[in-house]
TrEMBL record:
It comes from the Bacteria. Pfam families: 23S_rRNA_IVP. The lineage of its organism: Bacteria, Pseudomonadati, Elusimicrobiota, Endomicrobiia, Endomicrobiales. This is Four helix bundle protein. PANTHER family: FOUR HELIX BUNDLE PROTEIN.
């Protein structure tokens, strides 16, 4: 049985929510600009985390986690803009933002640990 990876699991669940949000935005609001941006950044988070788990070195792992962290920051921006533009309601905004920030915090902790291990070696 594979080892549980909370960060990967959370990012995959988040990506699923982002895909649903994308479908909602393009079908209900006919919004094509922000929706394309958020689906790219929001699904890229988990893809980079997954790729980092198969990195060829600790430095490769760190690089992929840093990309995932940047994508999380970008996704956070798009979530805030969608709320400000009234494309998503308060409840959806709060849920998406919480999930995004949780992933960002986990990435920050993971990067800190990986970098500290690098310093010890």
């Amino acid at each position: 049985m594979p080892k549980e990876n909370i960060l990967l699991d959370k990012s995959l669940q988040f990506a699923g929510r982002i895909v649903k949000l994308y479908k909602y935005l393009i079908t209900t609001h006919k919004e094509n600009i922000i929706s394309k941006q958020i689906i790219r950044s929001g699904t890229s988070i988990g893809a980079n985390i997954n790729e980092g788990n198969y990195g060829s070195s600790r430095a490769d792992f760190i690089a992929k986690m840093q990309i995932a962290q940047k994508e999380t920051a970008e996704t956070e921006y798009w979530i805030r803009l969608l709320h400000l533009s009234k494309y998503i309601n308060e409840k959806e905004y709060e849920g998406l933002l919480k999930d995004c920030l949780d992933i960002k915090n986990l990435l920050t902790a993971s990067l800190k640990t990986a970098k500290n291990i690098n310093k010890l070696q």
